[in-house]
Amino acid sequence: MSLPTPATAPRVNPLQRIWLREIGMERLWLRPAPVVTPPAVTAPVAAPSADMASAVTSQATVSKAVSPVPPAAPTIAANAVAPAAAVAQDAVAAVEQPAQAVVPTGRASGRPTIPASILNRSGPPPRPVPKTVEDEAVEAPRVPVAEAVKNATLDELREQVVACTACGLCQGRRHAVFGQGATPTRWLVVGEAPGEQEDRQGHPFVGRSGQLLDAMLAAVGMSRDTDVFITNVIKCRPPGNRNPKPEEIASCSPYLMRQIALLKPERILVLGRFAAQTLLGTDATIGSLRGRVHQLKTDDGAEIPLIVSYHPAYLLRSPSEKARAWQDLKLASRMV
């Protein structure tokens, strides 16, 4: 009797292959199935005659003298031949069976079971079934910043700034810098954006620029602890301290306007070109904006005096401009 050949994957047509791919079973189904190896079978041995016994005895003596050989494995009884032959016949039948017939079970072929109704199905693959609420959490619609901050308190506004993802700056920040100072406040000082130290510590103007700003405020009798609240137009640090982009300013401006509405400062000192252009809605240079008093109209119709001056970081690079910045501070302090 000949042994069965190793089982191979059934032939599938292109449509069946698409179905297997759709249900994620293409590789599992089409890989070669494990080879079914029937147990070794030996023919039953008849009782030896006297002549055969003597020949076997002499042969065993010769073999033992040449080299020691372990005793041969016991032969399988005659009643084991029938089950082994049945297993071999089933294996051959499974190989020769056409692909359109009943699909073998996973236990016999080593592959996951595929219902014949799916394997033989015709037509285009079905569209994926939409996931239910239980399968996938539904993302809440994003509320625009201007709408989200409309009725926020100062503490709620701080929490919104810390969790803000309205623009791409949130991806590279360490801390969002809400602002720091006295509440209520007499002066509101508005810078442009946090720097490296501000991003690291989460507070505005804490580096060399902050030290210079504190000295400038102290020269006119002001302190961030008792009189001044300091913040920025942009609450997250731009990469490499680059200039803020228009879309970043547009995303962050509602936070600043809500801060102004809640703090109700007596006057606003704006430091830097981007901050001045944002609050005044102009593209004029800082040289043409400083040296005079502007009026910022709030949403409730009130007008707050606004003074424009140079950013402390610019003054560190251009010490000759400190005299003009001093004039701006005196102008702000003389206002009633």
From TrEMBL:
E.C. designation(s) = 3.2.2.27
One Pfam family in the UniProt entry: UDG
Identify the residues that the record assigns to the Uracil-DNA glycosylase-like domain, covering every copy: 178-330
Q: Which domain of life is it from?
A: Bacteria
The family database entries (SUPFAM superfamilies) matched by this protein are listed as: Uracil-DNA glycosylase-like
- Asked if the keyword DNA damage belongs to this entry, the reply reads yes
Gene3D superfamilies assigned to the protein according to its UniProt record, in alphabetical order: Uracil-DNA glycosylase-like domain
Q: Where is this region: Disordered?
A: 105-130
| Catalytically driven reaction(s) | Hydrolyzes single-stranded DNA or mismatched double-stranded DNA and polynucleotides, releasing free uracil
Instruction: Keywords in alphabetical order, please.
Output: 4Fe-4S, DNA damage, DNA repair, Hydrolase, Iron, Iron-sulfur, Metal-binding
Instruction: Name the protein family.
Output: Belongs to the uracil-DNA glycosylase (UDG) superfamily. Type 4 (UDGa) family.
Q: What is this protein called?
A: Type-4 uracil-DNA glycosylase
